[in-house]
TrEMBL record:
Name used for this protein in its record: Cell differentiation protein rcd1
GO biological process per UniProt: mRNA catabolic process
Organism in which the protein naturally occurs: Setaria viridis
Family affiliation: Belongs to the CNOT9 family.
Spans annotated as Disordered: 1-23
Length: 309
């Protein structure tokens, strides 16, 4: 899934207050049990499995409970030695992914999102995104880590984007877009899309020829793969990335000669037949490039930078 699942809420029924009173001690006890190393594995599983039931309560509780975030970070750091050489077991992967699912709750909550970033918790996940192994346990680890980053970017926040850019998240996303599974590619592309929709993100990716072509080449490679194995969700995010790139004059000019043919020749028309929004994005992107093509004139300094002139 490209988007982290939104929390659900609704008006309580008449007996709900009593039920909530019964639930809170159980929830609090589970969080307290995270600090007990003997109970932690089972507790991680229970909290992760039931996190939707806790809704908005769980994130502040995790963040403000003494020692809880340290316990979650211990789980993450403990498997670093298994990343290289590749010795990670499926059981280890499942356990740390349960911890990552709880971090996603913290990253999603408006009251804990910025403290989460200020504490630089996301960088603890970057070693997982830097792996190149394609086995199930590493792919699961990569996808769950992306879910945490996806939760951060889902809400448009310039501070979040500025932080992620400062930590060089884009190269890690490009790595996943290159070698991950279809769903990991989708989430990583969603993250890049959200970053470049911010003006600072677009400026970053178009600042140098190397950055622009690193993204353009990966997008093109993913499109080639979609010809054989279609994925409407992934295609949607790829096209939105291309459309956003045309908002930068340098990138728009560069795409005149570096836009994959499959986006011009109707290859994906059947997949876009029922997706009006993505069809409009594609038509607008092609229009922007055509206008840039008809503009003529000497290339400006930004184009010189991207094209290596």
């Amino acid at each position: 899934m490209a988007n982290p699942p939104p929390p659900h809420s609704g008006p309580p029924s008449a007996p709900a207050p009593a039920a909530k009173d019964e639930k809170i001690p159980t929830e609090e006890q589970l969080v307290l049990d995270l600090c007990n190393s003997e109970l932690r594995e089972e507790t991680l599983y229970l909290l992760s499995k039931n996190r939707e039931k806790f809704q908005q309560d769980i994130a502040p509780l995790l963040w403000h409970s003494f020692g809880t975030m340290a316990a979650l970070l211990q789980e993450i750091v403990a498997i670093y030695p298994s990343l290289s050489p590749a010795t990670l077991s499926q059981a280890q992967s499942n356990r740390v992914c349960n911890a990552l699912a709880l971090l996603q709750c913290v990253a999603s909550h408006p009251d804990t999102r910025m403290p989460f970033i200020t504490a630089e918790i996301p960088v603890y996940l970057y070693p997982f995104l830097n792996t190149t192994y394609r086995t199930r346990q590493y792919e699961y680890l990569r996808l769950t880590s992306l879910g945490v980053i996806g939760a951060l970017v889902k809400v448009d926040d310039h501070e979040v984007i500025a932080y992620l850019l400062s930590t060089e998240i884009i190269p890690l996303c490009l790595r996943t877009m290159d070698l991950g599974s279809e769903i990991s590619k989708t989430v990583a592309t969603f993250i890049v899309q959200k970053i470049i929709l911010d003006d600072a993100g677009l400026k970053y990716i178009c600042a140098t020829r190397e950055r622009f072509f690193a993204l353009a080449n990966v997008l093109a490679q993913m499109l080639e793969g979609l010809v054989e194995q279609p994925s409407p969700r992934l295609l949607k995010h790829i096209i939105r990335c291309y459309l956003r790139l045309t908002d930068n004059p340098s990138a728009c000019h560069a795409l005149r000669t570096h836009l994959p043919t499959v986006l011009r020749d109707g290859t994906f028309n059947d997949f876009l037949e029922k997706d009006l929004t993505t069809r409009l994005w594609l038509h607008q992107m092609l229009h922007n490039i055509a206008m840039a093509n008809s503009g003529g004139g000497a290339p400006h300094t930004g184009l010189n930078r991207i094209m290596g002139m």
